[in-house]
């Protein structure tokens, strides 16, 4: 069985969408894959509760307890690699994981590390994407699923979805419209990879 490990920092709605899709579409049967673990860098991440309820392994690694980014990433890789086998390399899915990863970590999981970013990359890498899209006068915004490379919010694009930016949008209303699309395209992009 191929294991999927999902990394979160917050509410985990994308993680939940992936888990629900995997259940509904029977990924174990169809793709020989399962969401095996959810790891958070924050003990308070709401998504951990959902994951536990689903019987998925959860783990908290608080980045503040590590002396350096390298130390944190090494510990993270240690947990992820429990789910890795040469026959079925683990797929690492970043779903609202708000940590910059070291080049060494990215290299270790090259080709099997994916991220979702709430903008139409290459526009607006980084934070506050929705407000920046509004401020720039964008008529459309959206979301990108991409392979992770060492450069933040870059890498080959696997899927995108577009939404309109409305005249009275705030960052919150736009974020909500984009998030609805995130929940549709992220599970689909992962199924495509599987
Ligand atoms: C999502 O909008 C995701 O695209 C974004 O964080 C949110 C997490 O929501 N990710 C990034 O900004 C990464 N650069 P969720 O915890 O409910 O899935």
Automatic annotation (TrEMBL):
CDD domains reported for this sequence: FMT_core_GART
Protein name: Phosphoribosylglycinamide formyltransferase
Site (Raises pKa of active site His): 153
Function: Catalyzes the transfer of a formyl group from 10-formyltetrahydrofolate to 5-phospho-ribosyl-glycinamide (GAR), producing 5-phospho-ribosyl-N-formylglycinamide (FGAR) and tetrahydrofolate.
Organism (species): Rhodoferax saidenbachensis
UniProt-listed Gene3D superfamilies: Formyl transferase, N-terminal domain
EC number: 2.1.2.2
Residues where N(1)-(5-phospho-beta-D-ribosyl)glycinamide binds: 12-14
GO molecular function: phosphoribosylglycinamide formyltransferase activity
Residue sites binding (6R)-10-formyltetrahydrofolate per the record: 69, 98-101, 115
Reaction(s) catalysed (UniProt annotation): N(1)-(5-phospho-beta-D-ribosyl)glycinamide + (6R)-10-formyltetrahydrofolate = N(2)-formyl-N(1)-(5-phospho-beta-D-ribosyl)glycinamide + (6S)-5,6,7,8-tetrahydrofolate + H(+)
PANTHER family per UniProt: PHOSPHORIBOSYLGLYCINAMIDE FORMYLTRANSFERASE
Pathway terms, separated by semicolons: Purine metabolism; IMP biosynthesis via de novo pathway; N(2)-formyl-N(1)-(5-phospho-D-ribosyl)glycinamide from N(1)-(5-phospho-D-ribosyl)glycinamide (10-formyl THF route): step 1/1
InterPro entries: Formyl_transf_N (IPR002376), Formyl_transf_N_sf (IPR036477), GART (IPR004607), GART_AS (IPR001555)
Pfam families assigned to the protein according to its UniProt record, in alphabetical order: Formyl_trans_N
Similarity remark: Belongs to the GART family.
Residues annotated as catalytic: 117 (proton donor)
Top-level taxonomic group: Bacteria
Keywords per UniProt: Purine biosynthesis, Transferase
Keyword Transferase on entry: yes
All residue ranges annotated as the Formyl transferase N-terminal domain in the record: 2-190
HAMAP family: PurN
């Amino acid at each position: 069985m191929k294991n999927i490990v999902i990394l979160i920092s917050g509410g985990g709605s994308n993680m939940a969408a992936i888990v629900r899709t995997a259940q509904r579409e029977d990924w174990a049967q169809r793709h020989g894959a399962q969401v095996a673990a959810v790891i958070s860098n924050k003990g308070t991440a709401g998504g951990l509760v959902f994951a536990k309820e689903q019987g998925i392994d959860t783990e908290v690694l608080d980045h503040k307890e590590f002396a350096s980014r390298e130390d944190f990433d090494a510990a993270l890789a240690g947990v992820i690699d429990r789910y890795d086998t040469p026959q079925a390399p683990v797929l690492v899915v970043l779903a609202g994981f708000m940590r910059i990863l070291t080049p060494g970590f990215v290299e270790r999981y090259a080709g099997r590390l994916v991220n979702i970013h709430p903008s139409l990359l290459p526009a607006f890498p980084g934070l506050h994407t929705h407000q920046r899209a509004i401020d720039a006068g964008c008529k459309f915004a959206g979301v990108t699923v991409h392979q992770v490379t060492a450069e933040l919010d870059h890498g080959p694009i696997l899927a995108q979805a577009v939404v309109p930016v409305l005249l009275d949008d705030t960052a919150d209303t736009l974020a909500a419209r984009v998030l609805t699309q995130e929940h549709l395209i992220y599970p689909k992009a992962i199924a495509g990879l599987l």
